[in-house]
Each structure stands twice: as C-alpha cells, then as structure tokens.
Design a protein that fits this description.
binds 1-O-phosphono-alpha-D-glucopyranose; binds zinc ion; seven-stranded antiparallel sheet; alpha/beta; TATA-Binding Protein; Alpha-D-Glucose-1,6-Bisphosphate, Chain A, domain 3; seven-stranded mixed sheet
Length: 544
C-alpha cells in the first residue's frame, strides 16, 4: 500500500480562532504540526469519503508545501477529488464560490489573511463547509477536540504534484484538477454587476482608479477583471504580483498598512477612486480622492444603493453587521423596512442568516463586506459594487458619502488597536471591566450617562446556538457607544480593540475630523478601562 500511517503526538494549541488556526510559520513547521491539524479536520468531517474538496491559499510562504501535504493526506483519507487553484492560489471568496458552484463537500484555505507572511511571518489554515462559509463553532471545536487527542495521521507516499499547469492529475484513486483561480469568480462578478456601465465609465476618459493588490492574492483577479474585462487603464492595479512575503508589507488594506495607495489618493492629481484588498482577498478599503470611506459607512451605502446593481435589483431581504460595526446600516434597514441583525465578530456568524435567506448584505467594521453570492466577505466584490454605483450615479465618492450622511445622519466611528499587549494584562483589563459593570451603570461622564453595559451574547436566530463573551459594550443615553474586545486572530500576545461610535444627526457637523469628533469618548474609554495603567500603553498601534 502507498498509504502510510504515521504515529504522532497531539499538539494542544490547535484551537481555531476567529478565522481558523493561525500561527507563526515556525510553529507550523514543527514536526507533524500541519499534518496533525489536517488529520483532525478529516477525522471530524462525517461523510467526507468519496467527496470533492477545494484547496487553495493566498500564496504566502508555506502555501505550496502545505498544499502538497494536504493533497497527499486527502488521498489517504478517501477524498475522491480535489480542485486546486493554479500555483496554489485561490482568494478566500473564490474558494467559497468554487465550493458552492462545484457542489464540493468543503474546502481548505491556507491563509493568515491580513497578517504578514514570509519565513518569520504567519500562516493559517481554515476549513469551510458545504455552503462555502467558514466552519461554525460546532465544527471548529470538534476539530480542536480531535487535535488534542490525535495519535496518528494518514498520508500517501506520492511525489509532489505539479501545481502550475491547468489540468488533471491524481494521487492513488483521488483525482486532482488544477483550475484557473480567476475565471469562475470573474464570471460570477459579471452576473452581479453592470460591467457595461463600468466599462463605459473607465473608457470615458473622465475616471481613473488605483487598486492596490498589496502583492497578495487579488492581483491576478484585479488585473483580469478591472484591466482586461472592464477596460481600466493598464497600471490601474498596483503591486499586482502575489509574493510569498507580500513584498515585505503587511497586507491589510487600511490607512496604516496601505501607505502607497493612501499617498496616491491624497496626492496631486489623485485618481477618482482607490481601493485595496488584503492577503486572501476578503477585506477591502474604499477611498475617494483625499477621502476615506469608513467600512461601516461603506456597508450602509451599499445597502442604500443596492438596487443599482443588477444582482440586487429586486432589493434586499435583510442586512447584518457584527456587533462592533457602527449602526449606520441599521438606519438604512429601518428606512427600507427590512430586518437588521447584530452578530458577534467573525464572518461565520452570518452563514446561517444568509443560508436561511434572512439577509442579503452583511459586513464588519474590519473592512469586510459581502453578500449572499458567496459565504465569505469579498474584497473585490465590494470594489465592483462601488464602481457600479459610481458608474450610475456619476458623483464622486465623497459626494456619495456626504449625501448619505445628509439623509441618514453620520455615525462617527473609529477603532483603536493596541497590538502585542501582554496577554495576562489584556485579559485582566477585560475582567476588571466586567467587574466594574455595577459601578458603571448610571454613571455620568459630562453630558453623557451610562445606559447599559454588558458582555455581548448572541443567540443565532436560525439554529438557536448561543455564543457568549463576545465583547464588552458600554452604551450611553445619547446613543454613544464604546466596545472593548480582545482579538481572536493575533499570533503574538494579545490585541485589545477599542471601538468608539457617536451618532451625529446635524449635517453642519458632519465634516469634522473623526478623531476630533470622538475625542471626548476616546478619553472616556481610556479612563473607564484604565488602559495606560493596565497595559503600559498610551497610544494605539493602529487607528482605523
Ligand atoms: C478580525 C476582525 C473581524 C474579522 C476577522 C477575520 O478578528 O476584527 O471582524 O472577521 O479579523 O478577518 P479579531 O482579530 O478582531 O478577532
Ligand atoms: Zn482576509
């Protein structure tokens, strides 16, 4: 037999976080570490034998060896067929689409999303289920339980597979198909958006754009869709070649980590529209000329303008946002008379609502927006949605946003991240906050009074599953809100996230600078949490 059963020792740190298992590359390179986790996935999936899997990643360091190992293990574990993106590349939304379109049993995504890559960077592995979305907690905890007890794994003794040429091959009885990573995804986008209108916009000579692929997975997608299919000028896509270390950058599309694009958009003769996506292509940043669109506002604006896009012409069933995301979209939902759901952080919580047809659009403040077209957030999708709106409304990004605020009011919003904080100090800060709830309730801070404070818990309206401990919320009588959460995706120490929001109905005040408009609330957040005293930090690492 060509299948080997290898004795191994369980690792007890293989607990998937907000979005799969993410660790330093060096951790994944420990003997059997990857194999153990992959076997734990296979062992936890009832009915996998004889089925199809989709496998691909964001091209970061360790992507290729990991795919080779997964293919050999899939063959040894009875998988019938695996679809792999050429060169091992598939964006996260493209995996989601392929799982759905090919009616695969599930998919394995190799990515640590927006975390840096390279030998000293991060790597990650995530399992997606039949609906194309991230495995729910019931599945991820089964995988973790299994990983903690694992004593052997199965692997085929096959040579490495050629990942770089489209076509068919196999290992043992298992078929392997190397597919173009872009084609089927691009076809889906053509069905959702008015490509003719966008093409007319690009070829009018009146509109220019810059898209920063950050040397991550969306480069080939953006070049094919924006430049080849939509006629955007060559050079519209920058940093379009996927690199194993993302060119040394941090592939997170925000004002801090996309400085090249930000400089272009704020410079002389800036293009009309700027956008970027993250390592695995599920996050997006939207910029106008000298103008930043807060992700929470972007979600609200897409919802308010959804019927412009052919794929959403019949309207939205409902919308959903993660708890820390601003309530801007809630106002649009109210106006449209549709349901609006508030879920815990992480895309997996949208899956049931999308499957049940309760929501069409969903989003998170963390630069994630998406819809029922796949079961992941989708960076390029958001960019194309904006392009479709711009092509039809023929206004600038800034005008569209300002007009939105004029109608709905503005939810001033910011997130302050304190990265690599001592993990014990961060946990203690959260514990103390919870202990302080009784003192906080009713307390006055200037003209504001604390109306409620709690630790967010969510009951899924579809399967009634309950998720507790999802973040500390402090709400004030005037609608202002402060949220504290610890990140579930970091790999070093703890990341404390502080989310600050204040609603301003008065259009005369909408042009204020965000940090200024929120200065009061920001200092209340620091006082309440005694942040500096407890973490030794006085300035955030990243402000978005
Ligand atoms: C972060 C974001 C969250 C997003 C996740 C995956 O998780 O905050 O909204 O779903 O990345 O992209 P966190 O590190 O906060 O747990
Ligand atoms: Zn991502």
């Amino acid at each position: 037999m060509n299948i080997r059963t290898v004795a191994t020792k369980a690792y007890t740190d293989q607990k998937p976080g907000t979005s799969g298992l993410r660790k330093k590359v060096t951790i994944f390179q420990q003997p059997h570490y990857l194999e153990n986790f992959v076997q734990a996935i296979f062992d936890s999936l009832v009915g996998l034998q004889g089925k199809t899997l989709v496998v691909g990643g964001d091209g970061r360091y360790y992507n290729r060896p990991a795919i080779q190992t997964i293919l050999k293990m899939a063959a040894a574990n009875g998988v019938k067929r695996v679809l792999v993106g050429r060169a091992g590349l598939l964006s996260t939304p493209a995996v989601s689409h392929l799982i759905r379109k090919q009616r695969a049993f599930g998919g394995i995504i190799l990515s640590a999303s927006h975390n840096p890559g390279g030998p000293d960077g991060d790597f990650g592995i995530k399992y997606n289920i039949t609906n194309g979305g991230p495995a729910p907690e019931s599945v991820t905890s089964a995988i973790y339980q299994r990983a903690c007890k694992l004593s052997l794994y199965r692997i085929h003794n096959a040579p490495d597979i050629d990942l770089d040429n489209i076509g068919h091959s196999g290992i043992g009885d298992m078929e392997i198909e190397i597919v173009d990573p872009v084609t089927q995804y691009a076809q889906l986008m053509e069905r959702l958006f008015d490509f003719n209108a966008i093409r007319t916009l690009f070829t009018s000579g009146l509109f220019t754009m810059r898209y920063d692929a950050m040397h991550a997975v969306t480069g080939p997608y953006a070049i094919e869709i924006l430049e080849n299919r939509l006629g955007a000028a060559q050079g519209t896509v920058i940093n379009g070649r996927p690199l194993e270390d993302f060119g040394g950058g941090h592939p997170d599309p925000n004002l801090t980590y996309a400085p090249e694009l930000v400089a272009i958009m704020n410079g002389a003769r800036a293009p009309d529209f700027g956008a970027a996506a993250d390592g695995d292509g599920d996050r997006n940043m939207i910029l106008g000329r000298n103008f930043f669109v807060t992700p929470s506002d972007s979600l609200a604006i897409l919802a308010a303008n959804a019927t412009i896009a052919p794929g959403y012409a019949t309207g939205l069933a409902g919308v959903a946002r993660s708890m820390p995301t601003s309530a801007a979209v809630d106002r649009v939902a109210k106006e449209l008379g549709i349901e609006c759901f508030e879920t815990p952080t992480g895309w997996k919580f949208f899956g049931n609502l999308l499957d049940a047809g309760r929501v069409t659009l969903c989003g998170e403040e963390s630069f994630g927006t998406g819809s029922n077209h796949v079961r992941e957030k989708d960076g390029l999708w958001a960019v194309l949605f904006w392009l479709n709106i711009l092509a039809v409304r023929r206004q600038s990004v800034e005008q569209i946003v300002q007009r939105h605020w004029a109608v709905y009011g503005r939810n001033f919003y910011t997130r302050h991240d304190y990265e690599s904080v001592d993990a014990t100090a961060a946990t203690q800060l959260m514990d103390r906050l919870r202990e302080d709830f009784p003192d906080l309730r009713g307390r006055k801070f200037g003209h504001r009074q604390v109306l409620f404070c709690d630790d967010f818990s969510y009951t899924d309206p579809v399967d009634r599953s309950v998720s507790t401990g999802q973040g500390v919320r402090i709400g004030f009588d005037n609608g202002d809100r402060i949220v504290f959460r610890l990140s579930g995706t970091g790999t070093e120490g703890a990341t404390l996230r502080v989310y600050i929001e204040s609603y301003e109905p008065d259009a005369a005040k909408h042009r204020q600078e965000t940090q200024q408009a929120l200065a009061d609330l920001i200092s209340i957040a620091r006082d309440i949490s005694r942040l500096t005293e407890r973490t030794g930090r006085d300035t955030p690492t990243v402000i978005t």
